[in-house]
Amino acid sequence: MWLLVAFCVLAALCAASVALGVRVVSPGEVAAALAGHTDTIGEAAVIARLPRTALAVLVGAALALAGASMQAVTRNPLADPGILGVSGGAAFAVVVCIALLGVSSPGVLMGAAVIGSAVAAVFVYAVGSLGSGGATPLKLTLAGAATSAAFASLVQAVLLPRADAMESFRFWQIGGVGGATWDRIGLVLPALALGAAICLLSARGMNALALGDDLAAGLGAHVTRTRLVTAAGAVILCGAATAVAGPIGFVGLIVPHLCRLLVGTDHRWLLPFSAVAGAGLLVASDVIGRLVARPSELDVGIVTALVGAPFFIWIVRRQKVREL
């Protein structure tokens, strides 16, 4: 029932995303644009909002799926692609390829973002595993925060001497879906579909991991393989989403926690529900960003940060960074 409600809310938000924006359009212009007409500026504006809405749906679903999967793999309630430095690694890899190597191929940039995400994830987990107690939630969060800050500084160090690259990356670094095109969506869609399939097919293994490694192994689950496969799916989702929309934070943190309150902890339901809810959150954030700053607009990365930062503090106080 909740999944059906989530789909209905997502459909309503997509309709609002097409109809609402910086330019006011009438319902007649919306209907005419959807019928294929582009005679007026309003109709052209509606047509331009379609790929933007589709990209917001895909990126929101990908980040929410990645966040839920990371929380399952690390058993860390604070796990999120942004907080654990995975998005920062993807952003740094993209910046290095464009600013230093002169790479402009979207496919190569997406591959670089996935590799950067993987390197950042391995590094954070390795640092968080040092010392007694292994990879505790607190150590992973601290290692991720430090890694995110380091990548942000490295990105600035690469961009500051290059004014032309700095201008083009200034808005990408915030995170947004304003430059969406159908070509970009077609390029990133296979990677997002692959990452989503890996995570969804690993749902039973995530349920076993929630019981603890020893009990999961006793029940016949391949703990190491499940962790590696699930982490790979999350890294692919995060890297591809970051390459196409920039580093957008807090979606992977907020959505899985809210979804657990509605559908419980069974990942066979939690993962698809998180994907739909994450898509809705990013579409809603994009619509809010367009409306509150007329005639300009706020990128979705700013809106999700304003919503996610207080939620992050609430999770820390409520969970006291215990394991899931």
UniProtKB/TrEMBL annotation:
Q: Where are the transmembrane segments?
A: 55-73, 79-101, 108-128, 140-160, 181-203, 234-258, 270-292, 298-316
Name of a matching Pfam family:
FecCD
Keyword set includes Transmembrane helix? yes
Lipid bilayer topology:
Multi-pass membrane protein
**Can you say where in the cell this protein is located?**
Cell membrane
Xref: SUPFAM superfamilies = ABC transporter involved in vitamin B12 uptake, BtuC
Classify the source by domain of life. Bacteria
- The primary site where this protein sits is membrane
Q: Which residues form a coiled coil?
A: none
Q: Does this entry carry the keyword Ribosomal protein?
A: no
Signal peptide, first to last residue: none
Alphabetically list the UniProt keywords.
Cell membrane, Membrane, Transmembrane, Transmembrane helix, Transport
Record-linked PANTHER family: FE(3+) DICITRATE TRANSPORT SYSTEM PERMEASE PROTEIN FECC-RELATED, FERRIC ENTEROBACTIN TRANSPORT SYSTEM PERMEASE PROTEIN
Question: Member of which family?
Answer: Belongs to the binding-protein-dependent transport system permease family. FecCD subfamily.
Record protein name field? Iron ABC transporter permease
